[in-house]
Amino acid sequence: MTKVKIVFASITGNDEDIAYVLTEKFEDLGCDVDMSEVSQTDVADFEDSDICVIASYTYDQGVVPDEALDFYDDMQDLDLNGKVYGVCGSGDTFYEDFCRAVEEFDKVFQQTGATRGADTVKVELGPEQEDIDNLDNFAEQIFKKAQEMDL
Ligand SMILES: Cc1cc2nc3c(=O)[nH]c(=O)nc-3n(C[C@H](O)[C@H](O)[C@H](O)COP(=O)(O)O)c2cc1C
User: Where is the Flavodoxin-like domain (predicted)?
Assistant: First the structure.
């Protein structure tokens, strides 16, 4: 069974909602899914998974959330070759750096050698039906890539 690890950073619940949408979709696809909050998660969990996903909000001029900084730093030392990843997150277009943390996590995943399974998904605040459709599509693409790689 394909193992999926979903890590989220969320203060007001939008990214937690995103993580739940993805959990449900990956489970529908027949995956074994584990979801956890970033400050409660060890990066080694990604090494034990086939598919690695991050859902993060953006704060204060586009930086990675404070509680995700250790995780972000630890990711720089990971070798995730042969694994598939995806990044998504919530932001607010009121701010200049809309969903910048999504881009930052995408960059660090690239450094790990993991393969991007789908383009990033950026959600304006909480996920509406259109976002849920985009997230379902995101999960399907990632799963398809993992199947192509025999994961
Ligand atoms: C002080 C503050 C700064 C923020 N800065 C940004 C930002 O630079 N870029 C962005 O896209 N969203 C920014 N946001 C919006 C949050 O990312 C957005 O509310 C998000 O939905 C929160 O996700 P959560 O519910 O998972 O905590 C900011 C919000 C606050 C309160």
Answer: 4-143
